[in-house]
Input
Amino acid sequence: MNEKEKAKKEIGERLRKLRKYLKLNQGEMSVHIDIGRADLSSTERGRIYPTVYVLYLLKKKFNVSLNWILFNDGEMFYSPPVKRRKNSGLNPLNEELHDLFFHIENIPMVRHAVLSFYYDFRVRNQDLINDTLKSSLEEESPSE
Output
């Protein structure tokens, strides 16, 4: 196997690994990256290279590290640093929430996972939520 064939095969294997990590089938993934399922299959099998546009969409939609997908260098996903002021005054919990909101906003799969969990939790724990909100509102209201 020559260098070119080896590179196609390795890139295809990483693309398949990414798709499985995202828990998408080939049809779902192909919709996200705007190619046909057969082309995705050919790419995953190392028969063809992904196009530049596919690589662009992988980065844009899933925050995939192009260094990882092309060269197996670094982590699968970019983890861009969150810009903070030195003395932001945020406590650690607020910083974690800031990071969470940043990722929800910028990575569709994180947004989907968080919202799925939230809606499921809300349906299963409606009484707990109502009781907690009721007691919080009672504590905030001025005493008569």
